[in-house]
Amino acid sequence: MVTLPRTPSFNLAGRKALVTGATSGIGLGCAVALAEAGAHVVLAARNVERLEGILSQFLDEGWQASVLPLDVADIEATAVLVKDNGPFDILVNSAGLGRHSPAVETAPSDFDAVMDVNLRGAYFLTQAVAKGLKTAGRKGSLINVSSQMGHVGGVDRAVYCASKHAVEGFTKSMAIELGRDGIRVNTICPTFIRTPMTAPTFDNPERVEWIEDKIKLGRVGEVEDIMGAVVYLASDASALVTGTALLIDGGWTAG
Description:
Elements: E1 16-20, H1 25-36, E2 40-45, H2 48-60, E3 65-69, H3 75-85, E4 90-93, H4 108-136, E5 140-145, H5 158-178, E6 183-190, H6 199-202, H7 205-214, H8 224-234, E7 245-248
Parallel strand pairs: 1-2, 1-4, 2-3, 4-5, 5-6, 6-7
């Protein structure tokens, strides 16, 4: 008789997840998905009032959750908060910033602001969570929310693309270094998703035409399109997946 294989579990009960940018958009979607899968989700963002409102809704759903006011751009304070409130079995690094303009018009202040959050903040938050896991001798899954723009270029997005290409690079390097510790590091790379952050883009008819032409499935993304992916990468179902990018781009980069 053949021994039939069994699908590894997607259940996250007993695991603690830190989700930044958790009050809206992709971050909120990821937080909901992990909570639905059984994780205790620590909701992190700068806006305390919004965090408390989201927490109340999570608790009303019967999910395990708590809040952690956090600004990823303040790397010293973030390191302390992660150390004091961890270790975290799962990280979803979803705090992000976009300031778009033609490359020849990029202001240094906009460049610095984007890099402080998308690259510097993401790098040192991932570092802090990894340190906590190593100290505790625990395995974990660290997920950086990158972008399809971490693999291609885009009009008026030189700075944003630079930040996300860099996230792809440090994710691969950290995955190599941390693999023997059982700590996996991956990225999720969405196409244009309808969120408050992308609203100005969708208000521009020329940009919408460009986006719809590039997405082979013929539609833009919704937050729900990301939720299954984050549970997969956080769970034992992806136990052999590290140093890779999960593209959720409707076929954009395939073409």
